[in-house]
Design a protein that fits this description.
Layout: E1 3-7, E2 10-12, E3 18-25, E4 33-39, E5 46-51, E6 58-60, E7 68-73, E8 78-83, E9 92-99, E10 116-120
Length: 122
């Protein structure tokens, strides 16, 4: 059974940092590109970062470039999202998902996990 389990969110002040983790179960993790999405309150879910199967390629939404860094550890079936210089507009539930083919385009392959809440507030 496929499972994606996000963790690492919390309440942080503007300018702070967080490291989110996504643990994957039930599929061959190393064969999938992995993506981080977020859903701000009252808004649609948006794709913010993606990483290729080997980690050699990454892509970011313009709104997070230079502040977010995605990485993966295939030995641990885990992908990470380092978030620096947090802004109030980064407040959202963050989700991970995967795609067996494309890095950025195309729908995610699996059902959504529970996500992890990131709240940026002073």
């Amino acid at each position: 059974q496929v499972q994606l389990v996000e963790s690492g969110g919390g309440l942080v002040q503007p300018g702070g940092s967080l490291r989110l983790s996504c643990a994957a179960f039930g599929f061959t993790f190393s064969r999938y590109a992995v993506r981080w999405y977020r859903q701000p309150p009252g808004k649609a879910r948006e794709l913010v970062a993606a990483i290729s199967t080997t980690g050699g390629s990454t892509q970011y939404a313009d709104s997070v470039k230079g502040r977010f860094t995605i990485s993966r550890d295939n030995a641990k079936n885990t992908v990470y999202l380092q978030i620096n210089s947090l802004k109030p507009e980064d407040t959202a539930v963050y989700y991970c998902n995967a795609n067996s083919g494309l890095l950025w385009l195309g729908p995610p392959s699996f059902s959504w996990g529970q996500g992890t809440q990131v709240t940026v507030s002073s």
